[in-house]
Amino acid sequence: MATYTPSTPIDDIGQKPPAPPITGGGDDGRGGDVPDYGARLRRARLGLICGIATVGMVFISLTSAYIFRRGLPTFQGESNSYVRDWGSVDLPWLLLGINTAILLLSSISMELARRKAARQAALAPVTSIPGISLGEEKNFPWLGITVVLGFAFLVGQGLAWGELHNRGFFVSTNPSSSFAFLLTVAHALHLAGGMIALVWASSASLLHRPVEARRIAVDITGWYWHFMAVLWIYIFALLGLAR
Amino acid sequence: MAGGTGGRETVIMATPATVHSHAPQGFIRKYIFSLDHKVIGLQYYFLALTAVFVGMFLSLLMRIHMIWPTASIPLVGEIKPETYLALLTMHGTIMVFFVLTTAPQGGFGNYILPIQIGAPDMAFPVLNMLSFWTTFVGFIVILCAFFVQGGAPLHGWTGYPPLSAVPSAGPGEALGADLWITAIAIFCVASLMGALNFITTTLDLRAKGMTLMRMPLTVWSWFITAILGLLAFGVLLSAGILLLMDRNLGTSFYVPLIVVNGQVMGHKGGSPLLWQHLFWFFGHPEVYIAILPGMGVASQILSTFSRKPIFGYRAMVYAMLAIGFFGFMVWGHHMFMSGMSPYSAFAFSILTMCIGVPSAIKTFNWLGTMWKGHIRFDTPMLYAIGFVSLFVSGGLSGPFLAQPVLDIPLHDTYFVVGHFHLIMGVAAIFGIFAATYYWFPKMFGRMMNEPLGRIHFFITLAGTYAIFMPMHYLGMAGQTRRYSQFTEVAYQTKLLPLQTFMTYAAFVTIAAQFIFVINLFWSMFKGPKASDNPWDATTLEWTTATPPPHDNFGGKTPVVHNGPYEYGVPGASKDYVMQTDPPTQPVH
After folding, report:
1. Is the link from the previous residue into B547 a cis peptide, with omega within 30 of 0?
2. Is the pLDDT of residue B196 over 50?
3. Best to test chain B binding among A36, A46, A57 (most B CBs inside 10 Å)
4. Is the separation of the CB atoms in A146 and A153 below 8 Å?
5. Chain B from 98 to 127: CB within 8 A of any A CB
6. Which residues touch B439 (CB under 8 Å, ≥6 apart)?
7. Do A24 and B1 touch (CB under 8 A)?
8. CATH code of residue B358
9. How do strand B72-73 and strand B77-78 relate by DSSP bridges?
10. CATH superfamily entry for domain A47-69+85-129+138-241
């Protein structure tokens, strides 16, 4: 038999009106006093946005240096005139193209891993009930595939730098080659940081960390990985279009 | 499922914030590699305190050398001209990065911000700890530059190439310069980690009821400073990497075809102006990174000790936002000497003078806050008033230098040295002193000695004015900066008496800082016990125990009902209403 529970104690009816709800604050209406999974995910994503802004500023400043240096005339004593010394660099486009494809594939596998982790976290309250099963889910190691593809990209970049050396282009050969090395190495270092994050996210699974912690790790790494892919497309275009 | 656990996941509920968390007990985890924002804040503070004494000692050596160039100083010996330049470089770098950036933001921001917004800690405690220790490593690396072959670099804190980019350009430009650039790069990384943490904490960890427009102005200032840091330090990091490449990998980003000591260098085609653009895109916001926290502290203290709400709270917030915004658009005013297009110079000039508007809003609002207030002249208040005084004195010469036609003759003179020391150096230091005297009771549970604080204040105020105001006259008289001595230059020799006066003023002012240090450490152990709210202030840090417990509020989560500066509220039982007090009823 259903029972009725008044939301306001009967003794208080007719007395002063209830205080208005307290609004504002970082957790307002979303997490309350409990730093739950959603709040932690939001906090981690906010931190990631700040991190991406930082990396963005690094590459924006390198781009501005690229544009500045490219248009800079230099004085040539022999002709007593200003000339452009930008030079050219014979980039291994095929190899870089393959690397780009590998990175884009890794971004797709990362997204699948991210969605899978999100699904698992969402269903965890149900699946943790004894006797409840949602059926067999294909256990495809998207995260592991992303690690392998990311590693392949870095190896491919290493081959591209080696090929540049074979073609006679070193970091100090001319301004064009300096920037080619600078931008690609800077991107590779940031991607290597992403690889470390990927290993960390994978270890969250292996170490049987709570599913929500695992989801946050994979989610943050996933978005960072996508940013790395976009950043690479940008660098690829910059090197190709603004030669 | 990932990890192969077959869907049998155990969901561990997050620990509610209302549950009291216990502090780590081991010495290492509690005091060295602590994750507690309060301990990290104190670590930053004492790092900055060490750095400021190193920087001050270097300035003392410079001032002695200027008037007694052949004097032999005990333990140091005779200072050569190149040593003078090394002292100048290291003084500027240590002061700007490891004092003016570290203490106000890393020190007080870390300690106070989470408590003022009602949070148990920063958003990412591990990152916070890493940020401090990275800063510490940066400080050690820069100090190492003194002890390597050739000594510290000569290129000034602005590190202009080609001097900074060619290792053979002078003693100190070899390994010393590499260490200098590396230390700056390390500091950039540390600051970026800190900025990320500050922004996330402010946006996401505020207590119930702590709306943006209920945040204390200190929180606003640390928040805006963090945004500036986030956008600026990445640019300096990039610039530093390019400089390291020019120095060590033979690239030519900054170095043109150049002959050094009769030898043609391998570089060609680079431009020193590229460094100047990148450096000052960071460098000008850095001025506000140093001064904005001081503005927040001054606002907080002026309102508290005038027993009046801050005059124009919203205007103060928007003024800080405007200062931060314009700060990114005026870097060119540091480069009027570089031969830039007059049109560019005109744009930079106008934008620079625009910053005078929000600055004036803040100044008049501070005066408006004090106007007809029941002012309590305790030491924090004296320093806050001193901050306003120095901000005005140093700021007023800004519009002079913002005009290319005036900047060009004044740029390489002592006028600029006086200007930036007053506005960026001493004003920010006064902000740090004000914050120290104000929050010391909360941080250490004891009161500082008031008579010693006043003596320290009056000597420091008079001393700093005596050192830096004459620099403006020297500059207008044409005395050049960065010269190691003036005794051999005929027209500059006539100005030597003023330099001598400034050196004596520096002796007195530096001596007075030992009064502060004695007061600080004596009060830490022997000062009278402080109550939880000794200043009758309103913000959240004064609602908790003194010193605050590990989780800041002893297992409780504060709920905010009022603004941060509710002083003299009509109808209230006392002359202030704390942010957590029940909502005040409007009086009709």
Report:
1. yes
2. yes
3. A57
4. no
5. 117-119, 123-124, 127
6. B108, B111, B112, B541
7. no
8. 1.20.210.10
9. antiparallel
10. Cytochrome c oxidase, subunit III, four-helix bundle (1.20.120.80)
Q: What is the pLDDT of residue B489?
A: 80
Q: What is the pLDDT of residue A200?
A: 85
Give the dihedral sign, CA B268/B272/B273/B275.
Answer: positive
**pLDDT in single tens digits along all 243 residues of chain A:** 344 444 434 444 444 455 545 544 444 433 344 457 888 999 999 999 999 999 999 999 999 999 999 988 877 777 888 888 888 899 999 999 999 999 999 999 999 999 998 888 888 777 777 777 666 666 788 999 999 999 999 999 999 999 999 999 999 999 999 999 999 999 999 999 999 998 888 887 667 777 888 889 999 999 999 999 999 999 999 998 766
Q: Check A133 against B7: CB less than 8 A apart.
A: yes
Ramachandran region of residue A76, left (φ > 0), alpha (ψ -120 to 50) or beta?
A: beta
Of B203, B249, B271, the CB nearest to A26: B203
pLDDT for A36: 76
pTM over 0.80: yes
Q: Which amino acid is at B397?
A: S
Half-sphere exposure of B369 (CA within 13 A, CB side): 32
Inter-chain CB proximity B238 and A65 less than 8 Å: yes
Domain map (residue ranges) of chain A: 47-69+85-129+138-241
Residue B158's identity, in one-letter code, is T
DSSP E strands in B69-152: the ranges are 72-73, 77-78
Residue B334 lies in a domain: yes
- Residue pair B128/B105 in contact by the 8 Å Cβ criterion: no
CA atoms lying within 13 Å on the CB side of residue B376:
15
A129 touches chain B (CB under 8 A): no
C-alpha to C-alpha distances, B110 to A6, B130, B537, nearest whole angstrom: 46, 13, 20
Residue type, B64: I
CB of A122 within 8 Å of any CB in chain B?
Answer: no
Q: Which chain A residues touch B11 with a CB distance below 8 Å? A: 124-125, 128, 210-212
In a domain, B45, yes or no: yes
In-domain check, residue B453: yes
In this prediction, residues B142-165 reach a mean pLDDT of 96
User: Which of A8-22, B107-121, B298-312, B315-329 shows the lowest per-residue confidence on average (mean pLDDT)?
Assistant: A8-22
The answer to whether B8 and A128 are in contact (CB under 8 A) is: yes
Instruction: Count CB neighbours of A222 within 10 A.
Output: 27
ipTM: 0.90
Q: Closest Cα partner for B261 from B153, B158, B166, B154? A: B166
More confident residue, B582 or B101: B101
| Cα separation, B304 vs A193, whole angstroms | 46
Q: Is B192 on the interface with A (CB under 8 A)?
A: yes
pLDDT level of residue B511 (50, 70, 90 thresholds):
very high
Domain that holds residue B332: 40-565
pLDDT for res B584:
66
Query: Which amino acid makes up residue A106?
Result: S
